[in-house]
Design goal:
108 residues, alpha+beta, six-stranded mixed beta sheet, 3 helices, 31% helix, globular
């Protein structure tokens, strides 16, 4: 990664690139929400199910190509490669943090 990210985001992307579900889940707050592919997943059980499903289906890796702050949102642009039509593609990850944990993530 060429961008400096807050620790929870750096940890999330490093784990995602290793396809390590436990490590991907670790930075999320207990009441975190994830919005991806038109669905919202709330809490550790739902987020784990989403991580397991998308990791098995797409096997993505993400190269962070830009990161900026917009208000209270960390906006990360990633070059995503994996098992999906149009790979690689640039996706935007919008994170909000609650202390040192990810409170929400929206991918689009």
């Amino acid at each position: 990664m060429s961008q400096i990210l807050p620790a929870p985001l750096a940890d999330y992307f490093a784990a995602a690139n290793r396809h390590d579900i436990d490590a991907m889940l670790a930075p999320f707050a207990p009441d975190a929400r994830v919005r991806d592919e038109g669905e919202t997943h709330t809490g550790p059980t739902a987020i784990r199910a989403w991580l397991e499903h998308t990791t098995a289906k797409y096997r993505v890796t993400v190269e962070v190509i830009d990161a900026k702050i917009e208000g209270d949102t960390e906006v990360v642009t990633g070059r995503v490669s994996g098992n999906f039509p149009g790979s690689p593609a640039n996706l935007t990850y919008r994170f909000t943090l609650g202390g040192d944990r990810i409170a929400s993530l929206s991918i689009g």
